[in-house]
Amino acid sequence: MSSLLLFGNKSLHQRGCYAIYARFLSKKTNAREIPLTKEEQQGWDEQKRAIHDLRNKIRQKEAALRVRSGLTADLSRNRNMIEGASLHHQLAERKSSETGHGEAK
To answer: Which of 32, 74, 96, 102 is the most buried (most CB within 10 A)?
Structure first.
């Protein structure tokens, strides 16, 4: 029996989940696979599109957070190089001030 007949008043998500479960059961029992109706296929396509859109939004937000916190590979590498260079420069200045510019070690 079609999931649309069983769950005619349910949401597209519930119908899609039931259709997936029905297909799973049909494979488990070696019965003939139940084809999806046009409405079920449209619901399934809408769900896939919604999931795809949500994943894209999540990726964009994660990328924005990484940039804001400086965790992107390029930004963090550049920052480490700059910090390392300034630290090296500070150490060199300290050594030169301790020994003096013209003095031998």
So the answer is: 96
| Banded model confidence at residue 30, pLDDT cuts 50, 70, 90 | very low
Query: What is d(CA 103, CA 44) in angstroms, rounded to the nearest whole number?
Result: 80
Supply the pTM of this predicted model: 0.36
Sign of CA dihedral 20, 60, 64, 75: positive
Q: Could you tell me which of 33, 13, 37 has the C-alpha nearest to residue 24?
A: 33
Q: Which residue has the tokens 């050594």?
A: 95
Q: For residue range 88-97, list pLDDT tens digits in order.
A: 666 677 777 6
Residues 6 or more apart whose Cβ sits within 8 Å of residue 69: none
CA 55 to CA 78: how far, in whole Å? 29
Q: For the chain, give the percent of residues with pLDDT over 90.
A: 11
